[in-house]
Amino acid sequence: MQMTILHNHPLERPGRALQLFNERRKTMKNNIPFSQVLAIGLMLFAMFLGAGNVIFAPMVGQQAGSNIWVAMSGFLITGVGLVLLAIVALTRGGGTVEKLAQRVHPLFAIIFSVLLFLTLGPIYVIPRTTSVVYEIAINPLVQAKSNTSLYLLIFSLLFIGLTILLSWNTTKFVDRLGKMITPIFVILLITLIVKSFITPMGMIGQPQDDYVTGTFLTGFTQGYYTMDVLAAFVFGGIFIKSISSLGITSEKAVSALFIKAGIITMIGLVALQLSMAWIGASSVEAIGFKNNGGEVLAQSAIALFGKSGIYIIGTVIFLTGITTNVACLAAVSEYFEKIIPSVSYKKWLIVFSIVGLVITNFGLNTILTLASPILLLLYPLAIALIALVFTNNLFNGHRSVYVGTVIGTGLVAVLDALKDANIAPEAINHFFGFIPLFENGAGWIITGLIGFFIGLVAAKSRKEPAAIINMSGQEIRKV
User: Which of 108, 472, 136, 394 is nearest to 276 (CA)?
Assistant: First the structure.
C-alpha cells in the first residue's frame, strides 16, 4: 500500500511532474496582473487615437444638435464597436486582411486589400491627417492673411518631408514618441473637455439637414470616416502579436485578456467621441457652423482658452499627426513592396508621399469629399466580412455564402459610392429606391442578406465542402 502511494506521488513520476510544472507555468502566464491588462488596453486605445479621427464627432455634434445622442449611438457602432470586432475577425480569419478576404475569392482579396492600403495611405489618411494638423495648428494663425494655400503647401512639404524622414528607417523612436505623446494628448484633451463642461460655449441647437430625420443611420454612416475599422484590419496584427509576446498560449486566456483590454479601449474611445460631440454641439453659439471638424475643434479651443488654446491643442495635434502619418506610410509601403518586390520600400515611400502631398493641397474639405465614395464602398464590405467570419460555422464556411453576401453588399455599396460622387444620383434613387433603407445609405444590409441566403442555397445544392473555424482560429475543411 505504501509503495502504491509513493508510486502515485507526482515526485515519483517525472512525466507527471513535468506536466504539472508546465500547467502551472501556463497558468502563471495566462493570469497576468491588471496593470498589464491596463497597459495592453491603453496600447490598443493609442492605436486608434490619432489627429484624424477626433474631427468627425464634433461635426456630428454641430449638425445633430438636440438629436446628438441618437446620432452618436449610430456613430459609435461603426466608429468604436466594430473596431474590436474587426480585430477578433482578423484572428479568426487567418491573421491578415488578405487571408480574410480570400475566403471570398483570391482576386477579391487583392482588389480589396489594395484599395484598403491605398485609402489608409496616400489617398485618404495621410492627406487627411496632414490637413487636420494644418487646420488646427496653423490655419487659425494665418487665416486672416492672404495666400493661405501657399501656407498649406509650405506646411505640407515640411510635414510630409518629416514623415518620410521618420519612415525611412524603422526604429523604436516613433514607438517611444507615440508612448510619450498619447498620455499628453489625452491629458490636454481632457482639459479641453472639462473646460467645455464647466463653462459651456452655448446651448445645444436644433438638428440640421439629414439629422432631422434618419438621425441614427446618418450617424452610423458618419462613423465610417474615422476609418478605424479599416485600420483595424491593418494594425490588428500588432495587437495580436503583443499578446503572443507575453507568452499567453491558452485560447481561453487570450480571449479573456482581449475582452478585458477591449473594454478599457471601448470606454476610452466612447468617452472621447461623446466628449468631442458635446464640444461640437455646444459650440454653435460661440463659433457658428463650420465646414469641417478641424475648424470646429480649433475654434472651440480658442473660444474656451483664448489664443493660448490653439497653441496647446495645435502642438499636440501636430505630434499625434506625425506618428499617424509615419505608421500609415510605413504600412502601405511595406505592403506594396511585398506584392511588387521589384520596387523597394524606400521607393514606395517617395511615390506615396508625393501622391499624399498633391492630394493634401486640395484642402481638408475636398479630401473628405473625394474619399467619401471610397469609404462608402469599403466599409459595407468590411462589415460584411466581419459578420461572415463570426457566423462562419453556422453556415459551415461555404464559399458560395461569402461570395453571395459580398456581391449583394457590394452592388448597393457601389451605387451609394456613385451617388456620393454625384454621378446620376437622381436616376439611381429612382431605379433603386424600392430597396429598404437605400435612401439612408444602408440598403446594402438588405441586399447582403439576400446574397447570403442565395449563396447558402447554392452551397447546399452543390454540396460544397465545409470550412469550420476552430477555437484556435484554424480552418478545418470537411468534405
Answer: 136
Summarised one tens digit per residue, pLDDT across range 201-244 is 999 989 988 898 889 989 998 888 888 888 888 776 666 666 66
Which domains does the chain carry?
32-376 (1.10.4160.10), 391-479 (no CATH)
The answer to whether 473 and 252 have CB atoms below 8 angstroms apart is: no
Complete DSSP assignment for 8-67: HSGGG-HHHHHHHHHHHHHHHHHS--HHHHHHHHHHHHHHT--SGGGSHHHHHHHHHGGG
**Does residue 465 contact residue 477 with C-beta atoms inside 8 Å?**
yes
Task: Please check whether residue 119 is in contact with residue 125, taking contact to mean a CB–CB distance below 8 angstroms.
Answer: yes
- Report yes or no: 117 and 265 within 8 Å, Cβ to Cβ: no
Residue 382 class from Cβ within 10 Å (0-12 exposed, 13-18 middle, 19+ buried)? buried
Residue 72 grid coordinates: 452618436
pTM: 0.80
Q: Where are the alpha helices (DSSP H) in 169-250?
A: 172-198, 215-222, 228-244
Distances (CA, A) of 40 to 33, 47, 90, 158, 241: 11, 11, 18, 33, 11
Give helix 106-118 / helix 228-244 axis angle, nearest 10°: 100
Residue pair 409/454 in contact (Cβ under 8 Å)? The answer is no
Which DSSP symbol is given to 442?
Answer: -
Residue type at 20 in one-letter notation = L
Phi-psi region of 466 (alpha: psi -120 to 50; beta: other; left: phi over 0): beta
- pLDDT tens for 242-300 read 666 666 666 566 666 777 777 888 888 898 899 999 999 999 999 998 888 888 988 99
Is 148 buried (19+), middle (13-18) or exposed (0-12) by CB count in 10 A? middle
SS3 content of the chain, % helix, strand, coil (to 5): 80, 0, 20
- For helices 228-244 and 307-339, the axis angle rounded to 10 degrees is 70
Measured CA angle at 102 (ends 384, 398), to 5 deg: 70
Rounded Cα gap, residues 363 and 352, in angstroms: 18
What pLDDT is recorded for position 109?
A: 93
Per-residue burial over 5-41, b if 16 or more Cβ lie within 10 Å, else e, is eeeeeeeeeeeeeeeeeeeeeeeeebebeeeebeebb
Copy the grid coordinates of residue 86.
474587426
What are 95's three cell numbers? 491573421
Q: How far apart are the C-alpha atoms of 278 and 1, rounded to whole Å?
A: 76
